Amino acid sequence: MEVVICSTYEDLSKKAAKAIADLVRAKPNAVLGGATGSSPVGLYKELIRMHKEEGLDFSKVTTFNLDEYVSLAPDHPQSYHYFMFDQLFGHINVPPENVHVPSGISEDHEAFCARYEQQIKEAGGIDIQILGLGSDGHIAFNEPGSSLASRTRLVTLAEQTIEDNARFFDKKEDVPVHAISMGVGTILEARKLLMVVNGKNKASALADALEGPVTCICTASALQLHPDSIVFADEEAASQLKMRDYYNWVQKLKAEQLSKVCER
Ligand code: GLP
After folding, report:
1. Per-residue pLDDT, 253
2. Can you tell me the mean pLDDT for 71-100?
3. Nearest CA to ligand 1 atom 5
């Protein structure tokens, strides 16, 4: 696991966006895993800027999103489908037919989930999966207690998540209690995981995820099982990490090495 502690949210967003842009430049037909929530908004803004100002090309990119609320149609302003077009896809040149967001309104959720998994396989698997972190340590909508081998399925949201996400709805009662979510096992199959975490309210969940035991009680702790994961955290989110000096030391040496290579 690589942990990059950033001084500001802007810095974090720029660094995370660069990692994605580097992949898209190296592999124009990359398969990107999208995430919702407020954490990746800055990184999406930066990708939009790179597309508009630097010509970053998404025309061959395919995307798969992590999750969607059950019962919300794609044009519902609080649906994750709507969010992704509003915050990213509507502003870059990814072909809409290459975009996949789970459906929250399919007639047969089980069949839909099996098909979604199949579509990911047929696309060659996800190259880089963007992740946020729930305050209860969840990734996607894999709430505490989700199997670390879970696949895309119908899930029930935890009270904490409903409370956290109520801010996007008129009232708490409007937050759907079910969702379709990629499983932890599905997420672990992505070739690279990229997590963005900011704010004080994530500090304890991030410490549990990166430095606690691997457990279904904090599904983000599954990152420890992945051979290629990178976490961009701001100072507040990183404030409870025991190994923060070490993470900073690794990044300092990496930057020094890079500047030596550039001098040559
Ligand atoms: C929701 C999403 C998660 C996201 C989390 C954190 O629960 N399903 O994928 O990581 O929110 O959201 P935020 O970044 O707004 O804190």
Report:
1. 96
2. 98
3. 134
136 is catalytic: yes
Active site residue: 138, 164, 208, 234, which one? 138
Q: Output the domain CATH number for residue 247.
A: 3.40.50.1360
- Domain housing 258: 2-263
According to the model, what pLDDT value does residue 128 have?
98
Tell me whether residue 138 is one of the annotated catalytic residues. yes
How high is the pLDDT of residue 148?
98
Identity at 179, one-letter amino acid code: A
Mean of pLDDT values over 124-145: 97
Helical H runs in the chain?
9-26, 41-54, 80-87, 109-122, 159-165, 184-188, 203-211, 244-263
Distances (CA, A) of 216 to 124, 143, 184, 230: 27, 8, 9, 20
Ligand 1 centroid distance, CA of 104 (Å): 17
| 22 noted as active-site residue | no
Which of 39, 66, 168, 218 to mutate for ligand 1's pocket (most ligand atoms within 8 Å of CB)? Answer: 39
Query: φ and ψ at 251, to 5 degrees?
Result: -65, -35
Ligand 1: which atom is nearest the Cα of residue 181?
A: 8
- Reported as a pLDDT band with limits 50, 70 and 90, residue 66 is very high
Give the count of domains, the chain: 1
Ligand 1 neighbours, Cβ below 6 Å, are: 35-39, 66-67, 132-134, 140-141, 161, 165
> At which residue do the structure tokens 């398969």 appear?
31
pTM: 0.97
